User: What shape does this take?
Amino acid sequence: MPAGGEGKFEIITQEDRSSGKTIGQIVTTVSGPGQFPLGREFDLIVSVQDLAAGLKPAQKSEFAIVKVLVGLRPPQLYENPFIAKVDESSGTGTR
Assistant: This one.
């Protein structure tokens, strides 16, 4: 995660067993009272890179902002999910 979140979030990647695709989850790195003041909003800046292709420079998506609002209810998404695909046959700089 390039920026945002004050070190309180990280992205964990794993392979989806049903589809075989790699997925990422934003998770918290801290817990306990006072770590997330109610009503606080975090803007997390994220992007995706294909390091496995071995290209120099690596293929990279545009940046996207994920907003996290701290409250007493389960997480809710206010915008459509961010989905980006990079085909392995794409050249460097492909958007």
Q: What stands out?
A: The chain has a mean pLDDT of 77. The CA atoms of residues 58 and 89 lie 13 Å apart.
